[in-house]
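Run log, item B.
One chain of 648 residues. Sequence copied directly from the ordering sheet:
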Amino acid sequence: MQHTFPRLLLGHAQSHPQGAAMREKEYGIWQTTTWAGMAELVEQLACGLHQAGLRRGEHMVVIGANRPRLYATMLAAQSLGAIPIPLYQDAVAPECVFPINNAEVRFCVVEDQEQVDKLLEIRDRCPQLSHLYYDDPRGLRNYHQPGLSSMASLIEAGQAHSKANPQLFREQVALGRPDDVAAMFFTSGTTGNPKGVVHTHQTLIDRATVGSRFDKLNRQDEILAYLPPAWIGQNIFSYAQWLVTGYVVNCPESASTVTIDLKEVGPTYYFAPPRIFEGLLTSVMIRMEDAGAIKRGMFHRFMALARRVGPDRMDGKSIGLIDSIKYRLGDWLVYGPLRNNLGMSRVRVAYTAGEAIGPDLFSFYRSIGINLKQLYGSTETAVFVCLQPDHEARADTVGVPCEGVEIKLSDSGEILVKSPGLLKGYYKNEAATAEVLTADGWYHTSDAGFIDASGHLKIIDRVKDVGRLKGGAHDGAMFAPKYVENKLKFFSHIKEAVAYGDQRERVCVMINIDFDAVGNWAERRNLPYAGYTDLAQKPEVYELIRECVEKVNADLSRDELLAGSQISRFLVLHKELDADDGELTRTNKVRRGFIAEKYGVLVEALYGGKTEQYIETQVKFEDGRTGSVSATLKLSDARTFTPVKAAA
């Protein structure tokens, strides 16, 4: 069967027209769109866009949160042979200029007034931008701009055009081929301009099918779509796999209601980056600290049992009759209510990816009966490269190569991938494409790693980031900054970390505290503070962070390869790292080089042995205004440990 996304949609609309395709929470009530309703909406939008002049091979930008009508718009564009480009809804206006101009975009469909304002702001720099449609009309009544109109008017025009041309939609869908370009995703651009990753219907549908088959997904499954649609992970889970399997996609009312909506929906298939799992657990532990002594004691008693036998039970191993009985009692009193409180009472498969997840965090979720697993992939590979089979989920690996994937390692330790899900190329960038795709079809991931004895892939760091210490006691020792940073971020009190050490005698780090977790910790100790900057510089907080750093050092000392990466000095930053300030990408990855330049005075102070350093930093607020934050930061030493092998 020659599948494309519009054909998959029409297949569901024919086989189970009244089945739920998507649900959206509006004004506190869940509204259902059936497959027949979705197909009708897509036809109306496609006819409206066709009448407006959108043509085969042309690009169309879509900006907004997960909304049924925005998903329908992407399907409508694909039905006409056009190529949707989802952009991050939290990107500031100037960040949209390059993608729009690079792809010569004339048509944009956005969610609301915020996105309309953003595009009108940059319109003089994108002169070809002629058609701008919005879904939510609130606040836009008095906007009179050329080419600006509502999606409602587009649908109305599409209805009329469809009546006049009843065969148009089906004829356009029939022209689509699996090797046609289906979508383009712009990379987060840690260095330079972002690159447009071009994917065909075939690559995306193949990987979505493989992932669905691996975890036995079906029409009865449900997911909550709450991460940005511009991120290919969310796009695969709530768009490609949705159309492949026919399960129900639920769209939360807003970012602030996600936790409530998660509990109401009770998804069976769930995905989140580690920081979401960390946040959920932190909120639970904060509430538990405030519980009564009896409830707190029961919680800790049964959690000790769960940590001891829960992971083995999840892996299908025998835990003995007595422990089985105790665990069932714990499930009734603690684990079940806890899963329900987390919104995961029905989760059959949960995935995390994007960053390493802490072993304790990983074990916690599996110990209470949540089938949390890791996967490995990227925008360029259509996500699915490695998956963890049930009963083989481990915190220190990312799984085994999934169906159709081959993996090999280069001489430098870089992971190379061959897969049916590889990108067609980078848009208008043949040089960059040639850098990552070899003539015989291997993709350079830029990740360093190795296959362990059980056939699982382990990731060390980005190849370009793996460095060496120079001089001192650990001259020539390997330095893997991401590995060190992730170990620090395993602690609930640390939200972000940036490590430096390449070509230096020792490793130093800059740390962001988790304001909620540390704030709660401070309040329980009657420690007053006047905001993030004040809390971050409290001596008591520095001691708390020092304990975390030294635990990481003790752990690193047992790693023969990375014992030299122990942290000698650290500081706690006076502000949270922010994508709007250029310090993080839109997918929350650290832009280490940019931070080193921006905070050069702090890096030099760390390596210069100073005990404090004044800094003033410009920040950008959500409304576009700029301001500054200043503070005198403390710089602190941390205890390092003799490598275990050397001590022996």
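Observations after the first pass:
- The two ends are 63 Å apart (CA to CA).
- Residues 113 and 188 are 24 Å apart (CA to CA).
Flagged for discussion on Thursday.
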